[in-house]
Design a protein that fits this description.
Length: 354
C-alpha cells in the first residue's frame, strides 16, 4: 500500500532539431504529460491555501471556533498539546493523521507507543471532525484538522494567525506503534541523532533548531529528563547533574522530581519546559538555552553543533523567531503528505473507513 503521494515532478526535455522545432516539441511534451495524468500517473495535487473554499467553505471557521473555545478554557496546556500532536503526526508516516487511529486487535497503533503516551488534544480533534461531518460529510480530512488546530491553538494568544496552513492532505490508513518508536526524536538524543532524524523527513539543521523552539510551551514529566540529574562528572558532579545543565536549575528540578533514581520512575510530576515563560509562545526558550536551562538532552544538544549554536542568539529575538517558526512549521506540515487519490477522508478520525 502506498505511503506517500506521487507528486507530479516528471520533467520532459526534448532537444530541438531542424525537423522538430522547439514549439512542436513543447506541444508534444504537454500532450504526453496530459496523457500521463489521465492514466493516473500524476494523480496527486499540491497542498494549497483555502483548499475547501468551494467544497466546504465553513471548514476553517469550524475548526477555529472549536479550538479557540477550548483554548479559552485551558490556555496554559492545550496549545502545547495540539502543537505536539501535529509534530508527532508528521514525524511518523508523514502528516496523515495516523497518530489519531486507535489500536485494533492485532495492531498496536502509534498513539499507544511509549513516546506518545502523554499526547493530548484528541478530544478537540474529535469534536471538530464531528461538526465537519455534519456540515460537509466526507470532505475535510483529519490530517487537515490536526494542522489547523495546531495553528489556531498556538495563535490564540496573539489574536492573529502566526502562520498560514496549506490544506489538501488526506488521511492514512496505517498506524504502527513500532514506527512511532523508531521515527520520533527522543528527548535523550544527541545532535547527530537529531540531525539524522530530521534529515530523514527532509528537514535541515535550521528546521531542527527552530522547531525545537516549540518547547517554549508545555510541560515534561520527570522521567523524560531524569538522566540529566544523575549523569554529571563536571561542576555539578557533587549534585550528580549533567555538567551542561545550569546548577541552580538542576537543583530546582531535583527538588521538584526527587533524587535521580526516583525521578527516573516519576511519570506523574510535570515541569515547565520553558521556566519563566511556560505558557507564552515566545523566544524565551532560546534565552534559557544559552543559560544552560534547556530541559532535555536534545535541547542542550543544539549548543554542541557550531551550525546550530550559531543560530541561537538571533532566535532570542521574538520577531525573528516567529517569522522563522512560521516557515519551518509550514515545511514540516508538508512532510509525507497524502494527496490526490492516495489515502482517504476518514469519517471518524479514530478508525479507517470500511
Amino acid at each position: 500500500m502506498a505511503r506517500r503521494s506521487c507528486c507530479c515532478c516528471i520533467s520532459i526535455k526534448l532537444r530541438p532539431t531542424p525537423s522538430a522545432p522547439a514549439v512542436v516539441l513543447a506541444m508534444a511534451a504537454a500532450a504526453l504529460l496530459l496523457l500521463l495524468a489521465g492514466a493516473g500517473v500524476c494523480d496527486a495535487a499540491p497542498l494549497k491555501a483555502h483548499f475547501y473554499r468551494h467544497s466546504c467553505p465553513a471548514a476553517e471557521a469550524v475548526v477555529r471556533d472549536i479550538v479557540l473555545a477550548r483554548v479559552a478554557a485551558d490556555p496554559a496546556a492545550l496549545p502545547a498539546k495540539l502543537l505536539r500532536l501535529f509534530f508527532h503526526d508528521c514525524f511518523v508516516r508523514g502528516c496523515d493523521a495516523s497518530v489519531l487511529l486507535d489500536s485494533t486487535e492485532g495492531n498496536a497503533a502509534e498513539k499507544d507507543a511509549a513516546p506518545n503516551a502523554s499526547l493530548g488534544g484528541y478530544d478537540v480533534i474529535d469534536t471538530a471532525k464531528a461538526v465537519l461531518e455534519a456540515v460537509c460529510p466526507g470532505v475535510v480530512s483529519c490530517a487537515d484538522v490536526v494542522a489547523l488546530a495546531a495553528r489556531d491553538a498556538v495563535s490564540a494568544q496573539f489574536g492573529r494567525d502566526l502562520w498560514d496552513v496549506q490544506l489538501g492532505r488526506r488521511d492514512g490508513v496505517v498506524s504502527r506503534a513500532a514506527e512511532a518508536r523508531a521515527d520520533l526524536p527522543s528527548p535523550a538524543s544527541n545532535f547527530t541523532a537529531l540531525e539524522a532524524n530530521f534529515g530523514a523527513k527532509g528537514l535541515d539543521v535550521k528546521d531542527l533548531v527552530i522547531l525545537s523552539g516549540a518547547h517554549t510551551i508545555g510541560v515534561a514529566h520527570c522521567n523524560t529528563f531524569a538522566a540529566r540529574l544523575s549523569s554529571g562528572t563536571g561542576p555539578n558532579a557533587a549534585a550528580g547533574a549533567d555538567p551542561t545543565l545550569n546548577a541552580a536549575y538542576a537543583a530546582q528540578l531535583r527538588a521538584r522530581c526527587g533524587p535521580a533514581p526516583a525521578a527516573a520512575n516519576n511519570n506523574a510530576t510535570a515541569v515547565a519546559m520553558d521556566p519563566g515563560s511556560p505558557a507564552r509562545f515566545d523566544a524565551h526558550y532560546y534565552v534559557n538555552l544559552k543559560l544552560g536551562r534547556g530541559l532535555f538532552t536534545s535541547d542542550a544538544a543544539l549548543l554542541t553543533d557550531p551550525r546550530a549554536a550559531g543560530m541561537i542568539h538571533r532566535l532570542t529575538k521574538q520577531g525573528y523567531f516567529l517569522e522563522e517558526f512560521r516557515n519551518a512549521v509550514r515545511k514540516m506540515g508538508r512532510v509525507g503528505v497524502l494527496t490526490g487519490h492516495h489515502g482517504e477522508i476518514r469519517r471518524n478520525c479514530r478508525a479507517v473507513n470500511y
